């Protein structure tokens, strides 16, 4: 998203900055170019879309395992990720690991919307020290609110033991009052907003502190991809550890298709107090899913953005 640069001039990954000075407490949007070449709104959205699609292909199997493990732990039937993956492959095949892919891909426009809104708010913030935090909270809150019905359907499909279609989940939700479409909204906000804050601060700091020498990766495009991959993986690991308990609360609250069958927040908290280990159910697949997915997503985003920059230079 953005970082706070001191007065000292630091080297830029894509070449020297056109300005001879860097103002104190100036912030650069994540979707703007480090080379001084501004990408358009369409190019920002396209970069976010490529990154999201790349990350989705990698993370969906781990997301399914994580969700099923959280539901099983809540029901008093904890299971290991390897045994669970083997059972899914035997009963449903490879498609079983990708159950929930349809709503996941339908969420892609909301991810593009999130990046665009964040970048616009950050630019309008005037470069103040709190501009990134305010932009991230506002953009993520708005994006989470808009995608909640699809987020609910995705969780329900991934938590189902057998095969469930997108149409079946949509039809079940349509028969319920609109309030039921936002079941789990509070824990989703409690998971996603802090996650975004932790992730982007860590990612931007890592981008500035970790440099890949040119003699290690001579190709500039590949170096940009590798840099984004490493920084994204580390930031994802930190954010995933901090937000796993709220992810468990969200899954338990949302996994039933019928709203009346969902446990109340009081019941969920009572379970977590009685068995604190339940708060970290599915931590294994989650710690693989998030760093791997976000590193893939950010490397794809950064590489696509770099390609747009190179086209401008020609």
Structure commentary:
By secondary structure, the chain is mainly α. It has helices at about 40-75, 80-90, 95, 100-105, 110-125, 130-160, 165-175, 185-210, 220-255, 265-275, 285-314.
Task: Please sum up the structure shown.
68% of the residues lie in helices and 0% in strands.
- What structural class do helix, strand and pairing data support? mainly alpha
Q: Specify the helix fraction band.
A: 55-70%
Number of helices: 11
Order of helices and strands: HHHHHHHHHHH
Low-confidence stretches: 1-34
Count of DSSP strands: 0
Average of per-residue pLDDT values:
80
Q: Beta-sheet strand percentage?
A: under 5%
Mind telling me the C-alpha Rg?
Answer: 21 Å
Main sheet record: none
Shape: globular
User: Termini distance?
Assistant: 27 Å
Name its key features.
about 325 residues, mainly alpha, globular
Sequence-ordered SSE layout with sheet pairings:
Layout: H1 41-74, H2 81-92, H3 94-97, H4 101-106, H5 108-124, H6 131-159, H7 166-174, H8 185-209, H9 220-254, H10 265-274, H11 283-313
Helix pairs in contact: 1-5, 1-11, 5-6, 6-8, 8-9, 9-11
């Amino acid at each position: 998203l953005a970082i706070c640069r001191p007065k000292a001039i630091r080297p830029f990954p894509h070449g020297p900055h056109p300005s001879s000075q860097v103002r104190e407490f100036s912030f650069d949007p994540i979707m703007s170019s480090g080379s001084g070449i501004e990408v358009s709104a369409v190019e920002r959205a396209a970069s976010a879309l490529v990154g999201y699609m790349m990350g989705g292909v990698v993370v969906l199997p781990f997301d399914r395992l994580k969700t099923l493990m959280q539901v099983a732990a809540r029901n008093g039937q904890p299971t290991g990720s390897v045994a669970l993956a083997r059972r899914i492959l035997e009963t449903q095949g490879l498609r079983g690991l990708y159950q929930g892919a349809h709503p996941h891909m339908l969420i892609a426009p909301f991810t593009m919307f999130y990046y665009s809104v964040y970048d616009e708010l950050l630019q309008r913030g005037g470069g103040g020290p709190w501009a990134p935090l305010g932009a991230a909270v506002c953009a993520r809150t708005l994006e989470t609110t808009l995608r909640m019905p699809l987020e609910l359907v995705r969780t329900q499909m991934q938590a189902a033991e057998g095969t469930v279609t997108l149409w079946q989940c949509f039809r079940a939700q349509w028969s319920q009052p609109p309030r039921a479409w936002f079941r789990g909204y509070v824990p989703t906000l409690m998971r996603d907003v802090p996650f975004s804050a932790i992730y982007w601060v860590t990612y931007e700091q890592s981008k500035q502190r970790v440099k890949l020498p040119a003699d290690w990766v001579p190709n500039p495009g590949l170096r940009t991809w590798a840099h984004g991959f490493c920084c994204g993986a580390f930031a994802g690991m930190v954010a995933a550890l901090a937000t796993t308990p709220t992810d468990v609360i969200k899954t338990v609250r949302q996994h039933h298709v019928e709203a009346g069958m969902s446990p109340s927040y009081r019941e969920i908290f009572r379970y977590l107090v009685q068995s604190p280990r339940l708060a970290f159910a599915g931590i294994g697949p989650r710690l693989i899913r998030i760093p791997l997915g976000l590193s893939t997503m950010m490397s794809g985003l950064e590489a696509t953005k770099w390609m747009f920059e190179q086209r401008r230079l020609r």
